[in-house]
Amino acid sequence: MQTTTLYNEGHRWLMFGRDPSKPDRIIDTNQYMIISDNQSILLDPGGIELFAPMLAAVLKHVSIDQITHLFASHQDPDIISSLGLWDQVLPNAKLYCPWLWEGFVRHFGMNNIEFHPIRDNGESLTLGNIDLQFIPAHYLHSSGNFHVYDPSAKILFSGDVGACLEPPGAPFLVEDFDDQIDKMQLFHQRWMPSNKAKQEWIKRVRKLDIDIMAPQHGRLFKGENVQRFLDWFENLDVGIAVNS
Asked: Which parts of the sequence belong to the Metallo-beta-lactamase domain (predicted)?
């Protein structure tokens, strides 16, 4: 499991991914951790197959009792099916997740972790000395879905928005945006079902000051590539890539 530091000025953002030992048919995912003071939150901590390497990677940076929060953007197994294993090792943690998916994610196992439902209009979380915002992203691609914005670091965790499936060894950052379009287009047209929801999200996100947009699969967007992605996504007709 490779670890990359995205931000380290008063608090830290770490990205975990590109695990060379993962099973071949398990799609590659990006996991993130934010550390502030003696607290930390894992964003979309991954599937059950990745629990062991994720736990080993995370414990290089924090102790187990400093993992105080988890976040699941939606209910998919690639982001949260490891929940039952985290539940066994975390002594005192809280899971922030869309209220819609509580009855679903509990199927992964949750006896010790406290479930905190995020209501549809979003909310904020104080983590150590920073405030994080849960940004509504409904129907992108899940009917109950949120992203996480850190106004101090100017980082938006964007879940499946901006995602694509990359071959092993791909860079962490988008280098040539035009080249990235071919990798993203079918993914977004298939997995994003609503143009109306897409436009609502873009309108909301354009009000944020974003330096890095960090999706759950593939490469991260930095600097001007954030706005280039928003312009491209705004004009993309989604919900249409269905095989005949």
From this structure: 28-217
